[in-house]
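Complex 449.
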Amino acid sequence: MLMHSFKYQNLSIMNKDLINDAKIVLNNNFQEKGYSIPCKGLYPFQWKWDSGFIAIGFAHYDLDKAKQEIETLLNAQWGNGFIPHIVFHVESDTYFPGKDFHLSKLHPLSNKDYPSTGMTQPPVTGFAMEMIYDIAENKKDVKAFIENNIDKVYLNHKYFYENRDPQNEGLVYIYHNWESGTDNSPIWDDIWATMNPPEYEFTRRDTNLVDPSQRPSKREYDHYLHIIEIAKQHNYSDEKIAELSPFLVQDPLFNSMLIKSNESLIALYKIIGNNEDKIEQLQQWQTKSISSFNSKLYDKELGAYVHYDLRNEKPLRFVSSSSFSPLFAGIPTKEQAKTLVDTMMNKFGADDMYLCASFDPESERFNPKKYWRGPVWINLNWMLYFGLLDYGYLEIAERVKSDSIELIEKAGFYEYFDARKSVYETEKGGYGGGNFSWSAALLIDLINN
Ligand code: DGY
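Predicted structure with (2R)-2,3-dihydroxypropanoic acid bound:
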């Protein structure tokens, strides 16, 4: 008994230290203008999905910063409801491609006060707002914040359903790999094989800051830039992009985030009252989205959700950590959830591996060090943890949580982590940017749950 409580006492002291370290990372990355950079050098601006995760971390100890993080992002919203993936709040020479490449001003409704990209990122803001509400002790204060900002998030969802769903399925498309968040996933290799972009001349900045073997290749960047060039030729018109972009994908991670956030907006509108029309609209989107999601993106044979290539009209049949993200949004039936968990444990859950690699470790495309081609990401693990809890897989959820904490303890607050346990005997195991904001923010949230 004594041994037992001693062990737990030590654990909580360790967690306390980790939380303090995480707060230092977050506080150092918070900028005067009211937003956080994901990390120094490599990512010197505000990123859309990062800001949602970061705000959840801040909500545990600095509500003002949590609110500012979201409000600063929403200030950059466009006239059509669109919220960009990067907001270039400052000048910086450590990032390519910057605002002079993206040229968001080409779009007639872009926000001319906030230069940005002309692409978006997974819509996490809705559920981030609900979590901030749940975490915050001062409900009155946070309720006022929700009242002032929720309609902007609603308009962002309206933008998606009205402009990104050409076949009216309730599933929205992304037109660029950077919109997925899983930037260089091996899933996109099949799309790159359909393209032959020019060899652009440009100077990368990321590969001066991070070992190039951990980042996308030059040829991959040619593809990334080419899609943007096509969008720019048409002033970022959604209709033209839907017609012409070589990359047009229904992504299970992106659509799960939208569905999760729809649910949060419904819950928050109920809390603030007087918004029956919006609640009804959200419920309609929700019913249609979930039904199409399960009929179109669920691959019975693989026992997992997969991406759908809308440009080439075919499923992209690969299992990645995105395949399990629908658990977080309550999309699978109980039976589907069981199959998903079995698939995950069979492919990703060996004893000598940390959960959960970002790409199928059994595939020849798996690369344990290269960004989204294999490493573990804390934000995906965090979603997986809550999804598994919701469906009653308590032990596996605990493993995802303790694996995430252990990775950060061993390597530090890195951007991504090697899933192979043996690596940590001789190497650091943490890759990409260091002192990475969402690894810190979500660690705080995980430990507090
Ligand atoms: C990058 O530059 O790699 C970013 O992640 C794009 O969002």
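The longest helix spans residues 2-29.
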